[in-house]
Amino acid sequence: MERRTKIVATIGPASKDPNTIEQLLSAGVDVARLNFSHGNYDDHAKAIAILRDISARLGRPTPILQDLQGPKIRTGIIPAGVIHLKKDQFITLTTKHVPGDEKHIFVDFPNLPSQVKPGDRILLDDGNLELVATRVTEKDIETQVILGGALGSHKGINIPHAKLEIEGFTQKDFHDLQFGLKHNIDMVAVSFVRTGDDILKVRKSIQQITPELINTPIIAKLERPEALENLEEIVEVADGVMVARGDLGVEMPPETVPVAQKNIIQCANLHGKVVITATQMLDSMIQNPRPTRAEASDVANAIFDGTDAVMLSGETAVGKFPIAAVATMNSIICQAEENLTEWGHWRGRAVQETNQDDTYYMTLAARELAHDRNVAAIAVFTKSGRTALLMSKTRPGVPILAFTPEQKTYRRMGLFNGVYPHLVPHSETVEEMISTIDKALVKFATLELGQQVVLICGYPVHSIRPTNMALLYTVGDDYSRPR
Prior knowledge:
By secondary structure, the protein is of the alpha/beta class. It has 3 domains: 237 residues, Phosphoenolpyruvate-binding domains (TIM Barrel), CATH 3.20.20.60; 77 residues, M1 Pyruvate Kinase, Domain 3 (Beta Barrel), CATH 2.40.33; 123 residues, 3-Layer(aba) Sandwich (Pyruvate Kinase, Chain: A, domain 1). It contains 16 helices and 21 strands.
């Protein structure tokens, strides 16, 4: 059986050369993520060019996900490279530009003291160090070390439960988005999302920068407690969501993250939106050639929860074994998918936003027809990709072959669970469409001549309209031949 859950992999210093990228795609990477918290425009432009060249040569869509940095509160430069904080020592976080040492650390957010009060917990370096605020002045936050350790320059600062008054979509993000749209990225992930308005601001910026790309998919990264409080409204306006478990695990107690993950995945599926589960999935493989058993279970449970995709971050960006990490992820997914009937939680029959939508009901009909007739696949003809996404959400249990004449749609569908995109010429009639897709059906690895396929599309074929037709088609039976 073909793997259905998609693999998103981050391109970075350990994986940016053409040979490694080709190996990553061959090992199973479906989507390439470019993290704009790191690297420069030259690095990203080169990565985009390499990805486009290799994916075209391999005949694969390989969509590119631009991940915007968002606002990051960080420590300043520590001239010694590293300082060691000890439990119970006192240290001051200051907005004054001072070199970092064991007594003072510069913070690059001038308004931070006004948003912190005595007793607030302050986490440094993804929660590896913990301070508590003891006294706050106009420019300083005096703290006591609760959990010590080594601290380097430019490390992240988190203040759990504090509702910081900070702009989610920064000027840097705007310029990065300009760069991404100019280089034809396929989708954009937005950090620090708290409400649906944060997504609408990015949509407005896309329209301002490049109006013709207004439909570029926006993925909301859910990293903060406020995002969970406003989950429904965010999911409604975004094209997809990312379960950003690393930041969630810093901002919230770690024991609450598994339940949050399940809620997010279920909400996205109920609304017919894409969901990516991310962060630390195979984290030990940054240094080791094999994952822990707990990590293998973690990946499998995300599949059972109903995620569309799973993501590798440091494992492929800076890790020692990027190819092995992808191959391992691929193996875990395949094993989990063999047991989805027994353990899977998402059954694909309750998408809420589509109760008056003919396309959704046609996808449900195709799903039932596929089961009743024991067909080998479902073929979808789509221009925007929406029918393919809704078909994906029904989880039909057979491959979904999605045919489109649109290059952007072809690439974007590379993220959809169980969907295998094909770029084909535009068709004017049903007979012409079937003749075109028959060649691809014959070549698909799991299909054989004589097997039946459910085909759904809009009719008339030459017009742009919702999906309203389904038919059973026998592979190899070209309807365009004279009878």
